[in-house]
Model the fold of this input.
Amino acid sequence: MDLARSASTFAVAWLVAAAPAAVAQSTLFTLEGPNGCVDLDAGKAWAQAGDDLYLLLTRRTAWAGDTVVLVTTAGVPGHFGIVAITELDGAPVFVPLLENVTFDAMGELVTGEVVDPSWGLHDLKLQAWAIGRDGKKLVRSGAVELALR
Done:
């Protein structure tokens, strides 16, 4: 029996049981290890609210040479999506990272980039948008933060 995985599963189950009113149907749980990377065996449980769309990062802090993978999930296969930087060091901006791309058969947009040393030290907020399941409504993810070091 994998005790770390069992503890993580228990922590998420406890959070849902303890606060059912706070945990909406459109809440996604992810686990983060001590190094800031997605880790299924140990770390923090994150409850991410979304408007039918989720943006996930493989790490919350990245240094030069690290690979950061962005995954937008819960999209409709074949529908268009966009991922953009919405805040740079506290200032509002709109810089598209992924645009004019469609969700794959699993309803995901996935891309990865290696952090270039010339990007400097910045704190970013990213967000994703897509056409909703009804084909009419625009849905968005919650904002996620990425620290470049």
